[in-house]
Design brief:
Layout lengths: L1 E2 H10 L6 E5 L12 E2 L9 E2 L3 E4 L13 E9 L13 E5 L11 E4 L3 E4 L2 E4 L9 E2 L10 E3 L7 H9 L4 E5 L4 E6 L3 E2 L10 E2 L1 H12 L4 E6 L3 H14 L2 E5 L10 H8 L2 E5 L1 E4 L5 E5 L2 E6 L3 H19 L10 E5 L3 E2 L5 E11 L2 E6 L5 H7 L2 E5 L5 E2 L4 E6 L4
Parallel strand pairs: 1-20, 6-7, 14-17, 14-18, 15-16, 18-22, 20-25, 23-26
Antiparallel strand pairs: 2-13, 3-12, 4-11, 5-7, 5-8, 6-10, 9-10, 19-21, 21-22, 23-29, 24-28, 25-26, 25-27, 27-29
Helix pairs in contact: 1-6, 3-6, 4-5
């Protein structure tokens, strides 16, 4: 059996990165830039006022103060997006609003709180050194500036930056389309009438929800434990998906045929069975140039193999280079144990105590209920058999307020 870290490395390095597609900038949230993106225009496009006030010549106000105001003649006014009425000359001021272009000849803006208007004149009660309250052309974005590097995820802030820089379309890495197959004579897809001895395919529902939360579209299918039925489902899904994930039939039982079918179909085998718990029956290979992941049918094993190996690999296909989840730290409120030659994952609830996060390992007897309550997953790495109560440990946050 392969170690968990090696299995994850193989998964991440053997999935293809998908080709790029061009999208309107406003539709790229969460996508990964396929190439660097440069600004097309300056923002602001002119020197602009950042305050309501008066455009002035700094030299006129060198000696201005509350007890010795300087009187300037008001030569016009201009608002944001407007055109200045005249060139500013010594002894005059032009009324400007926030965002208005700085009139030609002006060197600063005197804010309203230091100005008193009297008809066609304004009394300046403070000085205004050159550049005060002025946003220079290209201060926020300069034409030609690199705004986003290839491989960067597009966040709301980056999208705002791109729009300010005049970028209307962005080349982004295409997201994979995933094919999810539930296997087993006892498995029904949602919507079918339940029968004695049957159960609904909650594993693929969980996978579908996770993938859709990451913007990845899914096609869902099901098949029996018959060799021909599994082969037919796999062949069909490979034809319509970029990656296929099977659930069930991955271990050593009489009806565990998925890997045997894939062997028969001629897949390129990478690994099967990993020293991780839960999730040890996970396997991976390449069929028709596309990755196939075989996951066990038990809900905790299926979920853990999916979250720790499959999901990171699919996000890598979409161009992401950072981990699927951030690493946080919390304090265990009781001991947890694993096997010294094994990577063990522990489902935990999560609470806050003042500024500290507390991790409470969950009882897995009611498996689906425990999974639904899991907010953090603690990893006990190979070489470590026990983490003691009170220890501050890293964990994977899968749900956090």
């Amino acid at each position: 059996m392969m170690g968990f870290d090696e299995a994850l490395r193989l998964a991440l390095t053997n999935v293809p990165r998908l080709l790029a597609e061009s999208l309107p900038t406003g539709e790229t949230l969460g996508r990964v830039a396929a190439e660097e993106v440069r600004a097309v225009v300056d923002s602001p496009s002119v020197d602009a006022s950042i305050k309501d006030g008066y455009a002035v010549i700094s030299a006129d106000l060198v000696d201005a103060g509350p007890s010795r105001p300087v009187e300037l003649r008001i030569a016009g006014s201009v608002g944001a997006g407007g055109e200045t009425p005249t060139e500013l000359v010594p002894g005059t001021a032009i009324r400007v609003l926030s965002g208005a272009p700085l009139p030609q000849g002006a060197t600063a803006v005197l804010a309203d709180e230091f100005a008193e208007a009297h008809g066609t004149f304004v009394h300046a009660c403070a000085d205004a050194h050159e550049g005060r309250n002025v946003l220079r052309t290209g201060t926020d974005v300069a034409a030609g500036e690199i705004l986003v590097m290839a491989g960067e995820e597009l966040t709301p802030g980056k999208i705002g930056l791109l729009v300010a820089g005049g970028v209307t379309k962005v080349e982004v890495v295409r997201r994979p389309r995933a094919g999810l197959i539930a296997t087993g004579d006892e498995v029904l897809l949602p919507g079918r009438r339940i029968e004695k001895g049957k159960l609904y395919a909650s594993n693929v529902a969980l996978q579908d929800a996770w993938l859709r939360s990451k913007g990845i579209e899914c096609e869902i299918g099901a098949c029996t434990d018959a060799f021909e039925d599994i082969a037919r489902a796999l062949t069909a899904m490979i034809g319509t998906s970029d990656v296929v994930i099977t659930s069930g039939g991955a271990w050593k039982g009489d009806h565990d045929l998925v890997v045997k079918v894939l062997d028969d179909l001629g897949w390129e085998f990478l690994f099967h069975r990993v020293r991780m718990g839960p999730g040890k029956a996970v396997g991976m290979g390449i069929l028709g140039g596309k990755p196939v992941f075989c996951l066990p049918g038990g809900p905790p094993s299926n979920e853990m193999a999916f979250l720790m190996i499959v999901l990171p690999a699919l996000l890598r296909m979409a161009g992401h280079t950072t981990p699927a989840f951030p690493e946080l730290f919390g304090r265990l409120d009781r001991d947890v144990t694993g096997q010294v030659d094994w990577t063990q994952f522990v489902h935990c609830d999560l609470t806050r105590h003042n500024r500290e996060l507390r991790l409470s390992p969950l009882d897995m007897n009611r498996r689906l209920s425990a999974i639904s309550r899991t907010r953090g997953i603690v990893k006990i790495p190979e070489g470590v058999e026990r983490l003691e109560e009170g220890t501050i440990v890293p964990f994977t946050p899968v749900a956090i307020d």
